[in-house]
Write a structure and sequence with these properties.
The model has no long low-confidence stretch (mean pLDDT 81). 15% of the residues lie in helices and 36% in strands. The relative contact order is 0.19. It is built from one helix and seven strands; from the N terminus they run αβββββββ. It has one helix at 13-27; strands spanning 38-40, 49-51, 55-56, 60-66, 69-73, 80-89, 92-97. The protein starts with 12 loop residues before the first helix and ends with a strand. The protein has a domain at 30-97. It is of the alpha+beta class. Strand 4 and strand 5 form a beta hairpin.
């Protein structure tokens, strides 16, 4: 069984994430664009990806954003993900994420 990931896996990233969380608590809630909300198909992935106002199903809850860059907190543990999401077409989103 694989051990759960923690912030220790990316030690250099934690201070940046904590800073982002502090700024978020001052500025308010992170929201994903309205046009992205709904169900999305991803090639090679069985389940539909769901995007809501504040959540990207497999990535977590959005806690901070800047342009195309989003910081997500996993709902089940203390890990964070940095995700860059680009709208290539109204029907196509492209994303890349940190590990």
């Amino acid at each position: 069984m694989k051990a759960p990931r923690t912030c220790r896996d990316s030690r250099w990233l934690c201070p940046l994430l904590i800073l982002g969380l502090l700024v978020t608590s001052i500025n308010g809630v992170c929201e994903l664009p309205n046009q992205w909300r709904g169900g999305w198909f991803q090639s090679g992935v069985r389940d539909i990806i769901s995007i809501t106002r504040t959540e990207f199903s497999s990535k977590g809850v959005c806690v901070r954003s800047s342009g195309e860059k989003f910081l997500f907190k996993d709902k089940n543990d203390v890990c964070f993900r940095c995700v860059v999401i680009s709208e290539k077409h109204p029907n196509i989103l492209q994303y890349k994420e940190s590990k």
